[in-house]
């Protein structure tokens, strides 16, 4: 089923991928949400219609699972990202308290080489004041552009719905 267009949600374990997907789709229990890192263990496709999909990918990095399972996730993730013709863009989620970790940086460099569009959501932005969160975004943007010159970024909070409209606009643009 590699036809049509899809946007994938990717990021470190516990960055808020499933919560963001639910907030952006406007469906509370579309993707299963857990406080335990590593709950999403498969590639989950959510059809918007016959031709467009949102994709919840397993997280990378920390997860309380055996190394064998982590290696399987990495292989599955790499195969999906390298071969998926319908993939139009990536929503990369980073916890605003820990942006641009080494795995995020590696992912950005890799996606830039592959010419994959990336839009970063700095999740959990509600943990800071508006000004504090905006300052972090301004610090992240120049570093982000060094790693992936065409990447864009925004503040995001699933519980507060902060940034949902902006993220939806980016996804709609990619899925057209």
Helix residue percentage: 25-40%
Contiguous runs where pLDDT drops below 50 for at least 5 residues: none
* CATH fold annotation: Rossmann fold
CATH class descriptor: Alpha Beta
CATH superfamily: P-loop containing nucleotide triphosphate hydrolases
User: How many helices in DSSP terms?
Assistant: 5
pLDDT averaged over residues: 89
Overall morphology: globular
Order of helices and strands: EHEEHEHEHEH
By secondary-structure content and strand pairing, the structural class works out as alpha/beta
Strand content: 15-25%
Tell me the distance between the termini: 18 Å
**What is the domain total for the residues?**
1
Q: Please state the oligomeric state of the protein chains shown.
A: single chain
- Main pleated sheet: 6 strands, mixed
Question: Your description of this structure?
Answer:
The chain is of the alpha/beta class and 176 residues long. The protein has a single domain, classed as P-loop containing nucleotide triphosphate hydrolases (Rossmann fold), CATH 3.40.50.300. Helix 1 packs across helix 5. The model has no long low-confidence stretch (mean pLDDT 89).
């Amino acid at each position: 089923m590699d036809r049509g267009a899809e946007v994938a949600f990717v990021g470190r374990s516990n960055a808020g991928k499933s919560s963001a997907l639910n907030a952006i789709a406007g469906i509370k229990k579309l993707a299963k949400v857990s406080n335990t890192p590593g709950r999403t263990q498969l590639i989950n496709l959510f059809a918007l219609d016959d031709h467009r999909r949102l994709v919840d990918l397993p997280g990378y990095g920390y997860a309380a699972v055996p190394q064998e399972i982590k290696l399987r996730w990495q292989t599955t993730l790499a195969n999906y990202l390298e071969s998926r013709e319908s993939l139009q863009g990536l929503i990369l989620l980073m916890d605003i308290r820990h942006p641009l970790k080494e795995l995020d940086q590696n992912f950005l460099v890799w996606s830039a080489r592959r010419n994959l569009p990336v839009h970063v959501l700095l999740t959990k932005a509600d943990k800071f004041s508006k000004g504090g969160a905006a300052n972090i975004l301004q610090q992240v943007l120049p570093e982000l552009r060094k790693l992936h010159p065409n990447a864009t970024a925004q503040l995001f909070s699933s519980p507060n719905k902060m940034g949902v409209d902006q993220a939806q606009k980016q996804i709609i643009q990619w899925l057209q």
